[in-house]
Design brief:
Largest sheet: none
Order of helices and strands: HHHHHHHHHHH
Shape: rod-shaped
Number of strands: 0
Length: 181
């Protein structure tokens, strides 16, 4: 092999610049995502702050997703696990919270399908509240006081994105326990 053959394998200045940009983009993305739960959207937003070409960003994001750096599903599951009981939220409220974390919509919807229904979450939330609210409802004298106490329970649950129907059903079920005891 002669020295002139080596020139065939030498990269052009454009190719070298592209490769250098790719390495810099990958280093920026990995250092941002390493050791933390980061969604693909968060990594994309971070790379958009830098001056990399779109093709390089897409290549890096694709490789990072394959390498396990984009933790979209883990973020969904982690937030859903935390947002139970006293911190329970409706599916819509959880969806909005996950969208703020820049998790792709398709992944959010898939994960929410496997999550308990709004009714179950509303019951968990209401069960975790102090008995003060439910006691106020059942110790109310007259329909007007009962209506006010029920409205407080509904407002409390509505603050978490729950519809009023599960709240009223929960009140009725609690009434059975209060009547039996």
């Amino acid at each position: 092999m002669t020295s002139s053959d080596w020139k065939i394998f030498e990269k052009s200045p454009e190719e070298r610049e592209e490769e250098e940009m790719y390495r810099a983009c990958r280093v920026a993305a990995v250092s941002y995502a390493a050791g933390r739960l980061r969604s693909s959207g968060q990594i994309r937003r971070k790379l958009e702050q830098e001056d990399f070409s779109d093709a390089v960003k897409e290549r890096v994001l694709h490789e990072m997703a394959g390498g396990g750096y984009c933790k979209d599903r883990e973020i969904c599951r982690s937030l859903m696990r935390v947002r139970r009981g006293r911190k329970a939220e409706s599916h819509l409220a959880l969806q909005k919270r996950l969208e703020r974390h820049l998790v792709p919509r398709e992944i959010i919807l898939e994960e929410l399908d496997a999550y308990p229904s709004d009714r179950i979450l509303a019951y968990e939330y209401l069960d975790s509240l102090t008995d003060e609210l439910i006691c106020a409802y059942y110790s109310a004298h007259g329909p007007e006081e009962k209506k006010k106490a029920a409205a407080r329970l509904v407002r409390k649950a509505a603050g978490r994105g729950f519809h009023y129907r599960p709240v009223l059903d929960w009140i009725r079920e609690q009434g059975k326990y209060y009547e039996d005891s």
